[in-house]
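User: Before I run my own analysis I want an independent prediction to cross-check against. Here's the chain; please return only the structure tokens and, at the end, one sentence I can use as a sanity check.
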Amino acid sequence: MRKSKKYYELQALDLWDFPALIRKAREIQDITMEALCKDICSFSMMGKIERGERLAGKELRDRILARLGVCSDGYENFLFYEDYLVWKRRQRIVNAIEKSDFDTAEKELAAYGKKNGAFNLEKQFCLVMRAQIMQKRHEDPAVIASLYEEAVKLTVSDIDHVSIRKLCLSVQELDMILEYERCCRPERLASRCEEILAYISSEVFDTYSYVKIYPKVIYYLYLSTPERDRDWNRLLCLSNRGIEQLRTTGRMYYLWELIEIRREGLIWLLDRIENDGEGRKREAVQKVIDMMTDWLEALDFVHELCGTHRRMETSCYLYQQKEAYCISDVIRRRREMLGMTKKALCEGICSEKTIGRLEAKKTKPQIEIVRLLFERLNLSGEYQRWQVVTKDVRAYPIVGEISRCTNNYDFKEVGKLLKELEKYISKGNPINKQYVERIKVYLKFINENFKCEKVKEELIKVLEYTIPYEVAIKETEKYLTNVEIQCLLNISLYMSKDVNVVFETLLKFCEQIEEDEGSSEHITIWELVMTNLSNAYGDSGEYDKSDEISLRVMKECVWCYRSNTLASNLYNNVWNYSERLKKNIPASQGYQVEAYLKKCITLCQICKNTKRESTIIEKLTLLGTANK
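Assistant: Structure tokens:
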């Protein structure tokens, strides 16, 4: 989905300054205040929120952002204590349902409803979660239908009388509409799918919001169209587009279903290609059918290994919110890490009493005070959404492209992009400097054959733009930014092959976030660290520990519908098995290395990880040569 300048302007808005964000986002999107607030709050309240005269609660803020097309996936979110507690309880409910822990889900849902169920948005969340539980249990469809009808009409009251294009809706509301039509008005589900497809084609619709709803719309369009009436040429086009979006973003929402639709459509197409003179065309179509079959089998293999279901069972993924931190904990932990007194931190910003009350979670100071405290702690005073701090929207697509090229080991292009990026960001900002210099060190290692010790020294310098190395690895409670964690991870890769002090630091940090919020809530950085940790344990001969971590990472990633590290963790298991055999260490029976490597290759293809795919193909070729 090609993005315009307007899209990046929307994503560049500062979430710390919520009133200004609403004003600017409405202007970019050309949304009236009446449309934005419809059925979620009064017009007068929305006016007060936009003018900064009234603070919106977390649920209302989230819905306003979602209706404006602003998504927070993959970026650090900082919440005051009350909002953090609401977020934490909702995530416990969502995760319990995803993992079919219904006792926990119902207990948490009852507690949430009792404390937070007074307003429409909270009521709606409770109704949808109850419907999710009932769906997974295959309970009474009529009751499920009534729950969805009540839920959707709380915030889309005139859904039966108006076209979707005239409304301002969040992805969650679009999903509720799909479920309402499927359960209560199946005869008009197909037409609603068409309306939603038109609605989400907006050029400023957030990428991750878009990819959460688009695949489901295509699947429901397929289900709602009788077989004899299916336009297979269009369904092939739509399903292929959905698959490509999921592959690009590394997500798995309805991925299995879309691949199955595409395979069915290609078989339909193959049956209609004449044999005479079109042998090459038939051969090409058959090749894609075979590839789709391989993809389905690889996904089935992963689901079987993880004990998860290959088909989507709930809409809970729409309510997963990642990377949230309590502001009070961040400030206290960071201050203590740096050995800074409360007096030194607050000087010229606020009173020492305010710091004490903030860290004790007893006050909610003005956002400007929090900004200044963050900056003194070498954290960003601006809300980061693209790993760099800048108001120049030309920087954002470059950052996205750097990430894509890095994942594919296209370092020549990364170097060009980095030079272009430096035109649009301030190198005086330590966060920007850290981002740029970390990549430059890596490029020097690749292009100039830096020795490992030199790389480590350079990376430590980069880390220390925001935090001293010795402080970062000290055994204590921590708050580290995602970029700082990536720096530490890079440092660890150039140290001894044994599991080293930095890896131990990262492991303890992962244990801390698991205890605080859970690994699913910080999956982006958790899967990266734990995948590399599994690899390190394998290198040091601790194969059982490595296998255990890899399997755990795969399970968490599947529960969070993420595909990018599945191949890496499966490959870790294959490598560990091979090493056991070489050293005559007892290994599991019936382990087929060649078959597992082929599954790794297929998973790399699904995720567009061409570099790792090439590496595994080489491994498979060597294995074939050795077996001859």
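Sanity check: Residues 45 and 95 are 32 Å apart (CA to CA).
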